[in-house]
């Protein structure tokens, strides 16, 4: 009957955690991985270096990086029976659903550590998933497009192999395009971790029950898929395409985004934490100009995006609510210029976020965190006597 309910003030809210991996300042638009600024890492490091930094806490020296890459390459095959699982999916399946299922299925073929007491077992599982995940990513795309499955090549770099497995044409030699390699390397760095976002929190809470690494990652992939989270990069492109079809009428879509009766949101805008420009969006916007210029791609969608951004940045509705472009606003434009199909955009986000998820899962386990158990403010009925069915 509406009694006042209070949460036990001493109850430790397991919705948040201590972490030493990524620092965000939402007001100032600052992002640092293990203390290094995202701007410097995007410019001066490569994706595997950043993965090592996030997971183990230090930038690797050349010997450490070479060993890390060699250990990953040694695990860069998947059991051929995985192809039977892949064959069971219809072509209509979204690659995120395929990726989540195959990542979870890896546990059946390669037991991932539940016991983290052995640093060696943990390390082996980490290099194993870093070696196999790009294959699953590429195969989820090849399956969708009816293309034969490709493996990497021992002579190629980590990101070069991702592009080769995605794009190698069965009846011609594969030519690496350094512009695509650099662009993808930078995009993966920019997506590599982001503190306790929805999908990372999902990975941590799944792993807190001592579920293995691979199934914890599979839960993160599912959470990332939502259009309010990683699925936004695909939704941004679909929105920009709709505006283009609509004659580039950005004002109509701005009005829709502000209309309380219209569920439409300006995809790629706003953020739970950043109440300033997302620093990654600045870097990606600059990269979009560079990559499209280097590739000689004229894409009217980029102009529409810039026009929308300019309008939103001076519109009181967006200014009052501190809604700025986020990481997803420009990334899809680069993926599209690289020839990556739109249904793969969120898969590319998952590929970038993989080292962050691994780092966060490892930290949570090494910190011996208790099982995740958020509490609630109960707002339901107070006690009621049971009534037999004839009296209801
Ligand atoms: C990612 O957490 C992370 O770090 C995530 C991420 C990562 O790297 O892991 O950064 C990646 O997920 C980026 C976000 C991608 N999602 C989108 O671009 C989808 C569009 N954005 C929104 O749905 C929204 O901004 C969220 C989900 C990102 C944030 O939601 P909030 O902080 O809960 O904002 P809110 O829903 O409380 O909205 C506050 C106000 C509301 O208006 P009022 O009720 O105050 O009148 O702002 C409005 C909202 O209606 N609003 C928007 C809007 N986002 C918020 N209005 C129009 N368009 C938008 N995009």
From TrEMBL:
Coiled coil: none annotated. This is Citrate synthase. It comes from Winogradskyella vincentii. Pathway: Carbohydrate metabolism; tricarboxylic acid cycle; isocitrate from oxaloacetate: step 1/2. Keywords: Acyltransferase, Transferase, Tricarboxylic acid cycle. Belongs to the citrate synthase family. GO terms for molecular function: citrate synthase activity. InterPro entries: Citrate_synth-like_lrg_a-sub (IPR016142), Citrate_synth-like_sm_a-sub (IPR016143), Citrate_synthase (IPR002020), Citrate_synthase_AS (IPR019810), Citrate_synthase_bac-typ (IPR024176), Citrate_synthase_sf (IPR036969), Citrate_synthase_typ-I (IPR010953). It catalyses: oxaloacetate + acetyl-CoA + H2O = citrate + CoA + H(+). It comes from the Bacteria.
